[in-house]
Amino acid sequence: MTTTQRTPGHVSEQQARQVAEAARESEWRKPSFGRELFLGRFPLDLIDPWPAAEPRPDADEFLGRLAEYLRTEVDGARIEREDRIPDEVFHGLARLGAFGMKIDKEYGGLGLTNLHYCKALTLVASVSPAVSALLSAHQSIGVPQPLKIFGTPAQKQAFLPRLAAGEVSAFLLTEPDVGSDPARLGTVAEPVEGGYRLNGVKLWATNGTVATLLVVMARVPGKGITAFVVEGDTPGITVERRNSFLGLRGLENSVTRFHDVLVPAENVIGGLGKGLRIALTTLNTGRLSLPAMCVAASKRSLAIAREWSAERVQWGRPVGRHEAVAGKIAFIAATTYAMESMLDLCCVIADDDRNDIRIEAALVKLFASELAWRIADELVQIRGGRGFERADSLAARGERASEAEQLLRDLRINRIFEGSTEIMHLLIAREAVDAHLAVAGDIIDPEAGLGRKARAGARAGAFYARWLPTLAVGRGQVPGGYAEFGPLAHHLRYVERASRKLARSTFYGMSRWQGRLEHKQGFLGRIVDIGAELFAMSAVCVRARAQRQDAPEGMELADLFCRQARLRAEALFAALWDNTDALDVKAARRALDGRYAFLEEGVIAPPSDAAWVAAWQPGPATVEDVRRRIPPLP
After folding, report:
1. Which part of the chain is the Acyl-CoA dehydrogenase/oxidase N-terminal domain (predicted)?
2. How many domains does the chain have?
3. pLDDT tens digits, residue range 372-430?
4. What is the reported pTM?
5. Could you confirm whether 418 is annotated as catalytic?
6. Out of 418, 431, 496, 533, which one is annotated catalytic?
7. 528: CB partners within 8 A, 6+ apart
């Protein structure tokens, strides 16, 4: 019987920060468009001309077969209705090779590029977001991707062929009382003869109820958080619950308990103590799968909005002709174009492997998850009462079963999945100020001695003497700048000017708050959101110019999007310094202290004295195992 503790001792804010800092990739070995953008530089040559995708006839053929299978064999409405992906869908996807899209051909996979993989996920999500989430969690963060980057030849040979053939994988990091703060991770891997003994409970493991191979993050005493490949049917593993959610009906998501689970030493991925770095590195490209699903939902939203608004007549005109609705349709169309442009650009530059895309991938995840949710909300508004009505209810009375309310429910999780919006703001902001911390970090570090502070002051003086003058003028102030982009040139001039303004704003914020800047999350969030808008504007302009012969309408959409994005960016710039952040913090503290509890009177709350976070203790399961095993292919 194990004697491990449920959680490590009290973890201070500083300790939590140190764990996160140790896990991030600290070096920049390749150029990064996003990093330069936040530094006030606009390296358009990194993305222009639009990078050419590698020709892949085999991938195009697969996408054709996948589309036909989805069109004829997958019933998204049935999955939504029954809250379950049928076994035959698992089998059909396995026969197509969909579980091995990102696995190299030498291990039985398709070896798709990021671009083709995301095109596939977009297709799947248009029929069933739950199936797309299944495939994404399996390949983007599950066993295949960590092994592809960090696995040994023996690990790849042992596990990847099984996964390519249709076995399902899952990624287990989150715990009942540990979310984005991995320093408090409670699952322990205790060294024993021949390997490790796992004890702990994991929450919200997508695919957890059906997975036969797991990536499990656990703390090895004295070594740190480590990643393991774990066989899903190992004795001591119990799937205690299948969780149910607002959207993504059909998602197989679990609470999983590990009690004295023995894992061979050869199943450690990437070395002891490397778990968080593996997770973050995997997510650099893994995050691209969520925007693919957002693109799918946005495309469906545009189609529904267009067809409905052209047919529905109110006050003598189609509703789409009324300005109030027209503005919503324009927003949906322009933003969908931008979202797809950002995603395709990120995929192609990830595939050519010449650029570091950690910031860009995070930006497109942030942008797409936030804007797709707004798109779905606007669609529900356009559809009115029918937008609030379920598709099966519409069909029951003879109307087209358009899934507006389902889109809204399914998209909501993307603002939380794989890094909530708030965490993404902090993650991207940390990368955005990396150059400043590299030269001046010791100045604001309370643990740095006078000698370190003096040396940092000298470095900072030299750096800022060179850098600050570059933020004064640039190509964006030249009337003919970016003339090769024709009617879009003035938007790129704006991006260049705004990039320098963004860098100056960041510097002013550091100068003003110094070490307290990390607590100014409202300021940092706006800095990041401005960067996302500038990246999106850059992507649409470069794409529209590259495709203007084949798709001239792209120039119209790029111009429209840039005009909308500029308004949002300017509002964010103004809010950097004119906001209620400090007052909000005070009000929140008062609310937490109960000062405003009188506002909660006059309503009836559901009777419950259950804990907000369920406690757990090491030990064997006391409930029935609810795992689901997909029968072998017939």
Report:
1. 59-167
2. 2
3. 999 999 999 999 999 999 999 999 999 999 999 999 999 999 999 888 999 999 999 99
4. 0.94
5. yes
6. 418
7. 363, 366, 424, 425, 428, 429, 432
